[in-house]
Amino acid sequence: MSLNLFILSQMLIKMLHRKLSNPGLFQLATYINQGRELLENEPDFAIRYNTNGETMRAIAEDFQRNNTLIPKRKNRNGIGHYIISFHPQEKRRLNSEKLFTIAQKFCEEIEADKKIVFARPHFDRANYHVHFMVSASKFGSGKSSRISKPRLRAIKQEMDRFQQQNFPELKQSLLHLSGKEVAKSSLTGIPLPQKFKESDGSLRVKRRRKISQLDSIRKTLVDIGKQYPDKEAFLIALKQQGIETYQYRNRCMGY
Question: Based on the domain organization, do 168 and 71 belong to the same domain?
């Protein structure tokens, strides 16, 4: 069995979109700010690029002004909603400072300085996560800021390298690809309001009645990893099972 598959990301990066015709900007901003209208006396960080709004209404208005520059075409996206989520077992290892560092790295990868971005962490669920509200076009321009699937793969790989280098203790946050139907309403335990009309642009595997090839490969990797904890022995065992590794600059990046 030979399969080139990127499943080494140490965190889940979810990418959702809302249509330009009904983006619900104020609603999304308020949700990301955990139902609060104001940015004041915040115990944790808030990230803003190209918006100085201190209220959710002001932030939403900045996004709306930018949306007026987008050419009106059918099915154009009006806002991006990205979520970085971690395994529940990472709660005792994660804190606001680590999440801020990871969130800033993600902003760098998506070129947030060229867009409007509003981000906040959420600590109210079993798995800590960060929400990002990202303009559908570049700041002050109607030019699309869409992230393609190949680019998303590259971002996931870079985020994985960054996490492994800076926070090697976060070992449990393995990539989880939700089924299409599940993805619309939840994200590994993060319930999204049903009234959110968001299209899912994440990398995912469609749910089937039988076990997917991804699940089969994941199970094989876990089983081999338990038997061969040493890296070199692990790679040899993979080769014996017919699983090829993806190499980049002499480093194993995926399977």
Answer: yes
